[in-house]
Amino acid sequence: MSPQSEPAPEQPEQPSITASVTVSGAEAQILRDLAAVLGRTPEDLAIEHAAGLLPIPAEPLADWSLFDGPSDLAAGADQWMHDRTVR
After folding, report:
1. Distance between terminal CA atoms of the chain?
2. Furthest CA-CA distance within the chain
3. C-alpha span between 31 and 46 (Å, rounded)
4. Helix ranges (DSSP H) in the chain
5. Taking phi first (over 0 means left), then psi (-120 to 50 degrees means alpha), and beta for anything else, what does residue 62 get?
6. Mean pLDDT, consecutive 10-residue segments, the chain of 87 residues?
7. How far apart, in whole angstroms, are the C-alpha atoms of residue 81 and residue 33?
8. So what's the pLDDT on residue 70?
């Protein structure tokens, strides 16, 4: 009889959980837009949102396109930038 190697013992199965997340409506659109800006997938952000790591405000955000500051705020910006880069 020739010696035979014994089979390797079986590794115990690791416990795992597989889950899926569905986000719809306005939250889905917010996650899609954010994913495009961040260069990530909407699915990754949906999982983070479901886990509570990425909250989405219930109230609409302020319209950041409106600015109530002085009308001449940008008037000197070009000169200011030029002065900073010439040094």
Report:
1. 88
2. 97
3. 7
4. 26-38, 42-50, 77-86
5. beta
6. 69 85 92 93 94 86 61 70 71
7. 31
8. 64
Q: What is the pLDDT of residue 14?
A: 87
* Distance of alpha carbon 41 from alpha carbon 27, whole angstroms: 14
The pLDDT value recorded for residue 2 is 56
pLDDT in the model for residue 83: 77
Pair 56, 30: CB distance under 8 Å: yes
Q: How far, in Å, CA of 20 to CA of 22, rounded? A: 7
- The token duo for 50 is 């479901």
The tokens for 75 are: 């008037």
